[in-house]
Write a structure and sequence with these properties.
The chain is α/β, with parallel strands linked by helices and 249 residues long. It is 29% helix and 29% strand.
Length: 249
Amino acid sequence: MTILNQSSWPDQALQRAHELLGYSPIDQLSVFDVGAHQGETLSFFLSSIQPSCKLNYYCFEPDPRSFAILSDFVESSNSQQPNCKICCFEVAVGDINTKINLNQSSSTLVSGILHPEPFLCQRVPDGSHSIISSILCDQITLDSFVANIQPLPPGKKILKIDTEGYDYNVLLGASGLLKQHFFDVVICEFFAVNYRLCQHYLWDLASYLHSFGYMFDNIYDNRNTSQGRLYTGNILTLSPAAGAALDFA
């Protein structure tokens, strides 16, 4: 399964979120980065926000290999950015608070909770999806995490999820926050073909977010298979208030 049009991955959705929230000056922005990997999304926001904007940033990354690099980057960024408060947590995020097995792939980019489909390593023969070990890690829910943040940060809030097919479980664990429209923007990785065992699909994510009143904006960062099938990408949705401010109907 050859993957095409990779050059823009994964900046389009982030650029769009920045554009949409720019309809009014942002004095304070909070980003919840689930599947932070080695800080790529953090780097985007650090380079995109105005110097006067106070950034509260929460990184969640369960793979120790990536977390070691991420934590160094966070420490360096906090020392260089006086308006930023960046925290990183070596945990998975899902639908319940528990211990869970993380499958470490040969490539840290595709480590995840869900096992790959049996044929995946054949269709992507570079070895990146091969499981090299399974480790036990802590899993939390976003509902429980935010409940422990006191005081809650003001300003705009963005949720970004990139968890290799586990994204629906992350949303399940944020149902209380979604019901309150806590996040102004939700960016969520999706898959439209079989990728991981027990995964949910693009339409499941969009439908679940819609059930809380989140407005679908568009698909970004999409990649296709060599057959021309939609493979993966990011969906972006807005809370009812954020959508109304932009005259979304």
